[in-house]
Amino acid sequence: MSDRKEFRDLATPAAAREAIDSLDLSPEPEAVPLEDARGRVLAERIDAAIDVPGFDRASMDGYAVRARDTFGADEADPAELDLVGAVHAGAAPDVTVDAGTCAEISTGAVMPDGADAVVMVERTDEVGAGGDTDRIAVRTAVAPGDHVMSAGADIAAGARALGPGTRLTPREIGLLSALGVDEVPVVGTPRVGIVSTGDELVRPGEALDSSRGEIYDVNSTTIAAGVEEAGGEPVLYPHAGDDYDEMERLLRRAADECDLVLSSGSTSASAVDVIYRVIEERGDLLLHGVAVKPGKPMLIGRLDRREDVDGTGASAYVGLPGYPVSALTIFRTFVAPAIREAAGRPEPATAAVDGEMAVAERYGEGRMRLMPVGLLDPDDGGLPLVYPVDKGSGATTSLVEADGVVAVDPDTEYLDRDERVSVQLFSPDVRPPTLLGVGEDDPALNRLLDRLERPRYLPVGSREGHRRLRDGVPDVAVVAGPTDRDVEAVDLGGWSREWGVVVPEGNPDGVTDLADLVDGDVRFVNRSTDSGLRRSLDDALADLAAARDESRRDLTDRIDGYDLTVRAFESPARTVLAGDADAGLGLRETAERLGCGFVSLGEQPVVVRAALDRVDRAAVEELAAALEDLGDAESGLGEGDGILADLPGYSRNSRNDP
Predict the structure, then answer these.
(1) pTM of model > 0.85
(2) Quick one: pLDDT band at residue 656, thresholds 50, 70, 90?
(3) H-state helical runs in 369-474
(4) Which of 119, 165, 282, 324 gets the most CB atoms within 10 Å of its CB?
């Protein structure tokens, strides 16, 4: 009497998914050349090692000028400047723009010394006798920074360029190229062995004897295509008959060489018996039969690897039905998602989605606009929120932060908040981020984001982050230092960081406190006004000014370079390292990591604040849970795993109020 197990107690589809989820299909990470990285998934975070661009550059053709020389200029009373030369893209400037002079400049060219703005060529006239142009009439006034892309404006050194789990499309490849990355750490490709069973099977291309009931092996090639589409590497093995020894040899060989073994083919009772016995005797059978049509005869388990193979353990195993339609249906429903997850691939998505504008957008140039936008899933079953993402045509990260474009008709001058729009996705694989955050940039924040699933974070600074939180677009804002903005929000938690002055190793100028920046002969590099560090510096200068019975402006005017600002937390330290400044505003963590000296000026709280109507979102709750594991570099709390572990100058906030 046969002891073959019958399909009496069928498992539910949910149980089948749980069984497959319990299997380990994950391959080891690997490093691949950038040219081979398209379509792969990052295994770890990549931070920018350089500023992009690495220099201040012109964003249009025109004339490089000192902005103050154009103040008051207009069509009726242009300012005339001496033309001292020209600067072209790809060449080092060989001219200096002094007071009353200008230099012709091409789009993308390095700004020459002395110049701080560009006047577009359309707003100028050539002045000169006999065809010799030696003076330029400027018919408009410009402000410092106009038509100039500052160093690091695209992405700054130390910034979180791409996070783990990012799929590398041409957009991300372009960003990595701009950063000089030539080798990328990626999630390994799961190897999936495919073994078809049945004596009647013949490989396509071989002779077929229909009189013997032979049929071509459809499942192997069909499932192999599905494996590749899901992000795996299919490995086809010879088909196996109903002989136990042959079946065992092929299945265990596949287990030795692959992360997952799939069998499919004959539905005969004898073949099922053989596979069932191999799995039970050479592995672990977790499930036999699923209550789904088509696809009832499904096996899930593990196959032991032989001990003479490196990395002994077990390979995941799934037995698919024999009929091709059933096999493919079960594969796509249950197995393909597991392969995609192991490969870091997102679920397939459509190439276009409808959404609602999160903010109003005004546009009136009379031309069709392909507006880069980001998407945010509202987490309530409604339409995704759509928000504009645009740093300008020269910024690579505009594309990385955007999910697609909204085509704005030339006759459309205004898109209202909540207006329905159609978003053409950059890729069918695009999925909205689970969490949208804005605000301060910070080393601990980078670690925190690594613990979340598909976050998107825009480092716009504390002040701008608070503004955007008030306008209702992001889920959270990260705010550092004191703030004047009154925004209704929920504080999820935070940390404190030690801030101060970054100096060269050995502190050759002997900087000891803030007064040395005011009174000494020290070249300083500052942060932008949106930065929380800048606000703390300004408040400290105000206190020093009050103690001296002076105004803060009196002090800042005496700091050489106070108005020289850079974009990210690491940029001042790198400016000091390059010898372009004697001191810079920064963090102890950055100074120690880059081998600089540091003069402490205090501690600054950093708080993660959530929008009131987003607190119950799953992603926000996940963020709040991650904040519980901050750890503390000084006390040792959370040592090894805590977010703040090994970050000099970092500790938990004593209170959640910046």
Answers:
(1) no
(2) very low
(3) 397-401, 443-450, 462-471
(4) 119
- Please tell me the distance from the alpha carbon of residue 317 to that of residue 235, in angstroms, as a whole number: 14
Q: Which residues contact 200 (CB under 8 A, 6 or more apart)?
A: 212, 213, 214, 215, 266
Q: What are the C-alpha distances in Å from 413 to residues 18, 355, 375, 489, 504?
A: 51, 19, 22, 32, 52
Task: Look up tokens 């390059």; give the residue.
Answer: 578
Higher per-residue pLDDT: 389 or 623:
623
Lowest average pLDDT, out of 411-425, 428-442, 620-634, goes to 620-634
At 73, list the tokens: 């200029």
What residue type is assigned to position 186 of the chain?
A: V
Element at 192 (helix H, strand E): strand 191-197
Alpha-carbon distance of 537 to 516, in angstroms, equals 14
Cis ω for the linkage preceding 204 (within 30 of 0): no
Indicate the residue type of 363: Y
Supply the DSSP symbol for 96: B
Do the bridges between strand 117-120 and strand 62-65 make them parallel or antiparallel, or are there none, so unpaired?
antiparallel
DSSP 8-state code for residue 36? G
- Residues 114-136, mean pLDDT to the nearest whole number: 85
Residue 184 pLDDT grade (very low, low, confident, very high; cuts 50, 70, 90): very high
Confidence of residue 654 (pLDDT cuts 50, 70, 90): low
Which residue bears the tokens 């998407």? 375
Cβ atoms 251, 183 nearer than 8 A: no
Helix (H) or strand (E) holding 32: strand 30-33
Round to whole Å and give the CA distance between 462 and 482. 9
pLDDT tops 60 at residue 158: yes
Residue 129 above 60 pLDDT? Answer: no
Residue type for 101, please?
T
CA 25 centroid distance within chain: 25
Residue 612 burial (CB count, 10 A): 12
Per-residue tokens: 341 = 């997850």
Cβ(400)–Cβ(162) below 8 Å: yes
pLDDT at 655: 45
